[in-house]
Design brief:
This protein folds into 3 domains: 118 residues, PAS domain (Beta-Lactamase); 78 residues, Single alpha-helices involved in coiled-coils or other helix-helix interfaces (Up-down Bundle), CATH 1.20.5; 122 residues, Histidine kinase-like ATPase, C-terminal domain (Heat Shock Protein 90), CATH 3.30.565. It has a 5-stranded antiparallel sheet with strand order 2-1-5-4-3. It is α+β, with helices and mostly antiparallel strands. A hairpin with a 5-residue loop joins strand 1 and strand 2. It is rod-shaped.
């Protein structure tokens, strides 16, 4: 009849999981074929008698030395407890590292208590988990992109409706008045030239009013000053119309895409509006920098803070979607008590 020790070795030889046994001094006294193969050795004789920690566990993943005194894997020899770890690394014979999970349990040996260690190479499991994480991240990004696109569409629809209302209530009414006045002028020319002249003057005034209102509407769509003088000059003109003192600093020496320029302009306009309406600020600073690879626009007010993007497709929430659609990033820092800092970064 075979001895219990020989029978145990036969069993471990047939086990597909890598297993080895260390004596009380921490030296390898046995390793099954699975352990020998995974560690890159050809035969147990190449491992037997070697200090296990210094052979397969001597450095951490960051390359720093891993002292044996700090390693829990061989602790069962001293304490009699069973120890496990699901996130660790071993070294192969050729010096390459691979991820593992392991279990270490005390084992009574003729010369004192040793430990039996079973481990699993987790390379494939980690790869599968990484695939799942990347898939989940891609699904989240796709969902966020769909939500952003939906908010942009809603914002564009709301803007079109507002533009239609503004045209109907403003310039359109002025032009209707002009049309009626010109008809009256035509009727009065032969009978009352003086009244026809007065009507013509009124029609001229209404025409100028309609032109002014159309210009205002057009500036809300794409300010002409952006095309003629650039972003910084447009922001200074915007600041001059603000009820608060606004200091605009910075320069842009590179050519910006029209959509980036417009988005940056309306971002500052929205931030200034919020500072006036909600922040109770006494002054605002706008800083523009264009250094590869980013255009950065920062709006800083000294108000009471507490701002937060809210409202689907409007305000800062809508602008955040527009910035995101341009592959940019919008951040808002507005603790209660202030200050409020809005920063937009656009790739150049």
């Amino acid at each position: 009849m075979e001895s219990p020790h020989a029978l145990l070795e036969l069993i471990l030889d047939a086990v597909p999981q890598p297993v080895w046994v260390v004596d009380h001094a921490g030296h390898i006294v046995f390793a099954n074929p699975a352990a020998v193969a995974v560690l890159g050795y050809d035969d147990l004789a190449e491992l037997k008698g070697k200090p296990s920690h210094e052979t397969v566990h001597h450095h951490r993943p960051d390359g720093s030395v891993y002292p044996a005194a700090e390693c829990p894997l061989l602790r069962p020899r001293m304490t009699g407890e069973t120890v496990r770890c699901d996130d660790d690394w071993f070294f192969r014979r050729d010096g390459s590292m691979f991820p593992i999970s392991w279990r270490s349990a005390p084992l009574a040996l003729p010369d004192g208590r040793g430990a039996v260690v079973a481990f699993v190479d987790t390379t494939e499991r980690r790869a599968a988990e990484q695939v799942v994480r990347e898939r989940d991240a891609a699904e989240i990004r796709a969902a966020e992109s769909r939500a952003t696109g939906r908010r942009i569409m809603e914002s564009a629809t709301a803007a079109r409706r507002q533009l239609a209302r503004d045209l109907h209530d403003g310039a359109q009414q002025q032009l209707v008045s002009v049309l009626l006045e010109l008809r009256l002028v035509r009727e009065e020319l032969g009978t009352d030239p003086a009244r026809a002249l007065r009507l013509l003057e009124e029609a001229t005034e209404h025409t100028q009013t309609a032109i002014d209102e159309l210009r205002e509407l057009a500036s809300g769509i794409h300010p002409a000053i952006l095309a003629s003088r650039g972003l910084v000059s447009a922001l200074k003109a915007l600041a001059a119309r603000c009820p608060l003192p606004v200091l605009v600093t910075g320069a842009v020496e590179v050519e910006l895409a029209d959509e980036v320029e417009a988005c940056a302009y309306f971002l500052v306009a929205e931030a200034l509006t919020n500072a006036v309406k909600h922040s109770h600020a006494s002054r605002v600073m706008v800083t523009v920098t264009a250094r590869e690879p980013l255009l950065t626009v920062e709006v800083h007010d000294d108000g009471i803070g507490g701002a937060a993007p809210s409202g689907s497709g409007s305000g800062l929430a809508g602008l955040a979607d527009r910035v995101d659609a341009l592959d940019g990033q919008l951040t808002l820092d507005s603790p209660v008590g202030g200050p409020t800092v809005v920063v937009a970064e656009f790739p150049l």
